[in-house]
Amino acid sequence: MAKRNDIRPVIKLKSTAGTSYTYVTRKNRRNNPDRLVLRKFDPIARKHVDFREER
């Protein structure tokens, strides 16, 4: 049985390049209560762009 943890929820990171590409990751709500922004590679746009957390 999978362990369900509300402190480290699964979040989606959506590309800001206009493509619909997403990454899935986990984050710690205690350390990062704000929305997460990471600079990652978008294979559709073929460059590094900001990925913002969507809820």
TrEMBL record:
<keyword id="KW-0687">Ribonucleoprotein</keyword>
<dbReference type="InterPro" id="IPR038584">
    <property type="entry name" value="Ribosomal_bL33_sf"/>
</dbReference>
<dbReference type="InterPro" id="IPR011332">
    <property type="entry name" value="Ribosomal_zn-bd"/>
</dbReference>
<dbReference type="Pfam" id="PF00471">
    <property type="entry name" value="Ribosomal_L33"/>
</dbReference>
<comment type="similarity">
    <text>Belongs to the bacterial ribosomal protein bL33 family.</text>
</comment>
<protein>
    <recommendedName>
        <fullName>Large ribosomal subunit protein bL33</fullName>
    </recommendedName>
</protein>
<dbReference type="InterPro" id="IPR001705">
    <property type="entry name" value="Ribosomal_bL33"/>
</dbReference>
<dbReference type="GO" id="GO:0005840">
    <property type="term" value="C:ribosome"/>
</dbReference>
<keyword id="KW-0689">Ribosomal protein</keyword>
<dbReference type="InterPro" id="IPR018264">
    <property type="entry name" value="Ribosomal_bL33_CS"/>
</dbReference>
